[in-house]
């Protein structure tokens, strides 16, 4: 069943031929984590790519003033981890943690790299995943820089209303780059 979820997800991005899929499926192993588990810490190189089967995770940054900035949330079905560190095999500037108990499929950089060298379509699929992630980052960057707090909140509700039940509001406020009190006020507002 977990591999079926992965196959369905991958086929939406870039369908693989049976031989390619079988090779890709063979590199994944299950992993379960408790809530608030740090999977990657700032300064470490991301050695794994995760496919989320269950739970909610976040990548976040801690500034010099110890202020946290939540950058991204992941939940099923999606790939997860610190993408830039994984793809470049350089130390991460970010933390990746579970917010809830989580189940994953996980593979290593070495295994993924070997498959990308062997199968051009797997490399193309990874390129498509990376391009979609970059597209999302650029859209989000424009929202953070140009939208008011209310516009950010409305956009979040339009795009992913279910996150209000999944993710603690303090992390959602951080993700939107707004004060938690402002987030609460917007949440309680009848016009939203």
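^ Assign residues to that structure.
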């Amino acid at each position: 069943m977990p591999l079926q979820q992965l196959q369905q997800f991958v086929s939406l991005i870039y369908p693989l031929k049976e031989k390619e899929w079988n090779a890709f499926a063979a590199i994944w192993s299950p992993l379960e984590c408790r809530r608030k588990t740090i999977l990657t810490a700032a300064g470490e190189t991301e050695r794994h790519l995760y496919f989320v089967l269950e739970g909610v995770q976040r990548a976040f940054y801690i500034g010099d003033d110890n202020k946290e900035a939540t950058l991204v949330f992941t939940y099923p079905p999606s790939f997860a981890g610190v993408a830039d560190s994984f793809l470049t095999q350089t130390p991460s500037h970010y933390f990746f943690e579970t917010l809830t108990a989580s189940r994953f499929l996980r593979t290593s950089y070495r295994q993924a790299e070997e498959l990308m060298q062997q199968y051009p379509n797997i490399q193309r699929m990874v390129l498509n995943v990376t391009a979609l992630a970059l597209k999302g980052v650029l859209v989000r960057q424009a929202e953070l820089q140009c939208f008011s707090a209310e516009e950010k909140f409305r956009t979040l509700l339009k795009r992913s209303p279910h996150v209000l039940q999944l993710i603690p509001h303090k992390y959602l406020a951080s993700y939107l780059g707004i004060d938690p009190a402002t987030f609460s006020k917007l949440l309680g507002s009848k016009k939203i």
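The first helix runs from residue 2 to 13.
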